[in-house]
Amino acid sequence: MVLFLRLKYLSIILILTSVFAVTYTHAQQTAVIPTKNGKISGVRSADGQILSFKGIPYAAPPVGALRWKAPQPVEKWTGIKDCTKFSASPMQPKPAPFSMWSSEFLIPEEPISEDCLYLNVWTGNKQTGNKKPVLVWIYGGGFSSGGSACPIYDGEALARKGIVVVSFNYRVGVFGFFAHPDLSMTGEKSGNFGLLDQIAALKWVKENISAFGGDPAQVTIAGQSAGSMSVNALVASPLAAGLFNKAIGQSGANFTSSNPTKEMAESEVRVTLKALGSAKLEDLRKMDATTLMTKGNGMRRPYVDGHVLPDQISSIFAGGNQNKVALLHGWNEDEGLVFGGIKNVTDFVNDLRKNYGRNADFLIGAYRAANDTEAAQAQLDLARDQVFGMQGYLWLKAQVKQQLPVYGYRFTRIVPAEGEYKKFKAFHTGEVPYAFNNLRFVNRPWKESDRQLAETMSGYWVNFVKTGNPNGKGLPPWPAYQSNEKQIIILDENISNKPMPDAERLDLLWKIMQAGKPN
């Protein structure tokens, strides 16, 4: 039951229930909800159907003495905390559009700060006796950038389909993954602070989401790129056990390239310490954040610390020791990134022979390149398969091996574009606005078929969050992935399902990758 404020009576009536405790204020279009740490205020959508709460603290600010410490509890507050706008994004360089990513795919230019451990919630305003399933989104950015305030991550459209949507910030770069050799001496068990932040956010969801109408026993974690790699790591981590029961991974996992060991991660830090001019943890915690970011900048990622990740992620899955969840996973047709530039056909073939020896002939047969044009496409396809295809393929196979529910997809829609953006086609991250049904936030020449694809994809995603199965009324059928038929769904203007078209090539590539480079 919901009671509304009538201004002439000058009183606010608060209804508290175990399912959905909330106060509405028509004049201010606000909503107040109690959390474990105190009351927060959010806002209603223009039509009053959706409540959004932004910038909810889920951990203490990781600054000063808390820099490079596991996330600490939030201090309780009195009164009502304003949670109507996004918090600062994690500390990182100022964003600027590059390559295929226009501004809609990036965090706002400001604010950016170390004080970033906040989350956001979108939920329907209808009080019912049934708790809603929850989607928790984890952004990408190579573990060195990104944030939850990107326009394409807005959760309102998905919340309108009957789920609760949560997104959050986690520490990135040198602030999120820093294996200082002295950390263990201070009681820290890990330098995977970004992953620890993610686990802390999931614990907040478990403790608080009921107040927003959400079901803490029905939580799906989802992410793209480094966010998908994070999902993969959380499925592998014993510290995340019991915090979710379903997972969505979009273009990312950790199967073919080993995570750094603790020794390797600490060795990398020693190089950084030389650039910073100090090796003392105490001094580094006092250093200006911008200076630290600039001099300690670089790609960082989770490592095997014996705590968050007790072993290589591939080994954890191989032993069947991961958290058992239903999985929806796939990748995009044109997300191959070739670093160092496209080579002509002669140089491409020579590189394959140099790197793969006698196995090169198999690759040359699989990635045909009779001329420079074909060689350019072959390089993009090979890069896609090595970085994204193999990871996803092995994750699908791991699910099947342990008889866990799994659904595979390939996003092939050439994202409409103008000018230089036309060449990127079904690019890395291109599927995200479709899955969130957020095309309205992206300035592209959308067609009606794109809007329909977004409606369908978001329907699949929401159905999976609700039931662990993407299928539902009015949607084209999506078969479960099996080891024999390898059926996946093709997400394009015309949706279809068929056997994974490159499964044999991925099997070949995996065998060659296992064989390694010749001596």
Explain what this protein looks like in three dimensions.
It is globular and about 70 Å long. 46% of the residues are buried. Strands 1, 2, 3, 4, 5, 6, 7, 8, 9, 10, 11, 12, 13 and 14 form a 14-stranded mixed β-sheet that branches. The termini are far apart. Helix 11 (372-401) packs across helix 14. Helices cover 30% and strands 16% of the residues. Strand 13 (487-491) and strand 14 (496-499) form a beta hairpin. The chain has helices at 156-159, 173-176, 193-208, 226-236, 262-276, 281-286, 289-295, 313-318, 345-356, 360-366, 372-401, 432-435, 448-467, 503-515, and strands at 23-25, 30-35, 38-44, 50-57, 80-82, 118-124, 132-138, 164-168, 214-224, 246-250, 326-332, 406-411, 487-491, 496-499. The chain is of the alpha/beta class and 519 residues long. Residues 1-28 have low confidence and may be disordered.
Tag the structure with descriptive keywords.
14 helices; globular; 14-stranded mixed β-sheet; alpha/beta; disordered N terminus; 519 residues
Order of helices and strands: EEEEEEEHEHHEHEHHHHEHHHEHHEEH
Structural class: alpha/beta
From the alpha carbons, calculate the radius of gyration and give it in angstroms: 23 Å
Number of strand segments? 14
**How much of the residues is beta strand, in percent?**
15-25%
The gross shape turns out to be globular
Strand count, sense and barrel status of the largest sheet are: 14 strands, mixed
- N- to C-terminal distance: 72 Å
Fraction of residues in H or I helices: 25-40%
